[in-house]
Amino acid sequence: MKVLKIDHIGIAVERMDEALAVFEGLLGLKLHGTETVEEQKVRTAFLPSGDSEIELLESTDPDGPIGKYIAAKGQGVQHVAFRVENLEEALAELKAKGVRLIDEKPRSGAGGARIAFLHPKATNGVLVELCERKA
Ligand code: ZN
Question: I need a surface site. Which of 66, 74, 84, 127 has the fewest CB within 10 A?
Fold first, then answer.
């Protein structure tokens, strides 16, 4: 399995407009686009920074994963996403090593990426997303 880089850092936010005021207004990042992922009940906004991105995550439903996350832990860094060359291969390799996975198979994420989450119990309490993008 080959990790190419940190693809993005996912940050759970209560209000997208307030978060954009911080990341655009204070830090000077540029909004690259927003997208709602219905399946995940989340609205996302991507702000590139160098070769990586910040992904802001606002829940569209209190019962969605981000809504539950914020209810339990509040706003903040929610996951770190590493870009891999081949997601199927990476998942097969981790599974063979007995690593606990949230997603055994790739699913679709924002921006046309294929993604899968590892269980934070397997990765020092950090929710790790692996993602593969066609260049
Ligand atoms: Zn992500």
Answer: 74
The tens place of each residue's pLDDT in the chain, 135 residues long, gives 999 999 999 999 999 999 999 999 999 999 999 999 998 899 999 999 999 999 999 999 999 999 999 999 999 999 999 999 999 999 999 999 999 999 999 998 888 899 999 999 999 999 999 999 986
Distance, in Å, from the CA atom of 95 to the CA atom of 88, rounded to the nearest integer, reads 10
Structural domains of the chain, ranges and CATH numbers in brackets: 3-132 (3.10.180.10)
For residue 80, how far is its CA from the centre of ligand 1 (angstroms)? Answer: 7
* CA of residue 41 relative to chain centroid, distance: 13
